[in-house]
């Protein structure tokens, strides 16, 4: 069953549904949703000023309490276009990132990591090279510590075949 609630901050003008729709009260019409690369949004007007709002945030604010004041809205099933209230929850940035890794949306290893400057081929070149840390760091535009971590088997172990060695020793040892 679809439930409709007032849109927070726009109570006199718009309502939103548990199924992820936003409707103009005055025109009694469901608003057209704009699709950005990852999310749906709508343009809402208040006092003659038009602002674009992300649908998932509108739905979460209207249907979910946020007593811990968590800043982000997570799509539980991983589909960023599924804005049903049952698919949304308030989370911290860390919780959101961990969730995306857990369900397979984000990869933390190797070149699948969005922050990686290296790929499997360059890591093997680094690992097998006799050049100095400084020379390799300059050549591949990474820090000397990144080169050192690859050489010592602290990172990229799935490529180099090195056992994953603990980088930090226990203080009590």
In short:
The protein has 173 residues and is an alpha+beta fold.
SSE order, as H and E? Answer: EEEEEEEHEEHHHHH
Number of helices: 6
Residues in β-strands, percent = 15-25%
Rg on CA atoms, Å: 24 Å
Using the alpha-carbon principal axes, give the shape.
elongated
Strand runs, count: 9
The SS-based structural class is alpha+beta
Indicate how many domains the architecture comprises: 2
**Cα separation of the termini:** 60 Å
Percent helix range: 25-40%
Low-pLDDT stretches are 167-173
Largest sheet data: 4 strands, antiparallel
CATH topology of the largest domain: Homing Intron 3 (I-Ppo) Encoded Endonuclease, Chain A
Strand order of the largest sheet: 1-2-3-4
CATH classification class of the largest domain: Alpha Beta
CATH hierarchy: architecture of the largest domain: Alpha-Beta Complex
Mean pLDDT: 87
């Amino acid at each position: 069953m679809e439930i409709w609630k007032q849109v927070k901050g726009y109570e006199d003008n718009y309502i939103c549904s548990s199924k992820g729709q936003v409707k103009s009260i005055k025109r009694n019409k469901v608003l057209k949703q704009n699709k950005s690369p990852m999310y749906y949004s709508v343009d809402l007007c208040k006092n003659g000023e038009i602002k674009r709002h992300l649908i998932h945030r509108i739905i979460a604010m209207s249907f979910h309490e946020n007593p811990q004041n968590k800043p982000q809205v997570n799509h539980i099933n991983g589909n960023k276009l599924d804005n049903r209230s049952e698919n949304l929850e308030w989370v911290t940035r860390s919780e959101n990132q961990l969730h995306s890794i857990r369900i397979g949306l984000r990869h933390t290893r190797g070149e699948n990591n969005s922050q990686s400057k290296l790929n499997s081929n360059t890591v093997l070149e680094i690992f097998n090279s006799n050049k100095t840390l400084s020379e390799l760091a300059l050549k591949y535009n990474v820090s000397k510590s990144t080169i050192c971590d690859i050489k010592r088997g602290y990172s990229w172990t799935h490529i180099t075949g090195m056992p994953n060695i603990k980088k930090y020793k226990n203080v009590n040892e």
